[in-house]
């Protein structure tokens, strides 16, 4: 079944990765009170984890792409949890964006735009969300970006 999200992804020249399995003692998605709480997702490109520290060995463009790749993984988790029925997404409520950053790197919001802009492109006004964009000194496995989400479903 091809969904509206699948068509939009195709128009953007993007494809969803396989939803990643947990790497520790947690589940990828918890549903509570009509909200999906999606665990932090890491950025993968061509099957490889996008690693590095923004402002040190990675630039803003790399970070924004990594954030977009995290957003693709979030959508993959949503689609898997909803058995492919992405039409049940009522609203992307909030994204929490963690950027592996050098101490003097202050463009975390611009990095986070890589994810935010994709959510808006895929879900329209329902993709507009609240957001945190936080610099951290390290992330699991050396990832450049990690993003979690809260999503309202019908």
UniProtKB/TrEMBL annotation:
Q: In terms of domain of life, where is this protein from?
A: Bacteria
- Gene3D superfamilies referenced in this protein's UniProt entry, alphabetically: RutC-like
Query: This protein is called what?
Result: Enamine deaminase RidA (YjgF/YER057c/UK114 family)
Native organism: Sphingomonas kyeonggiensis
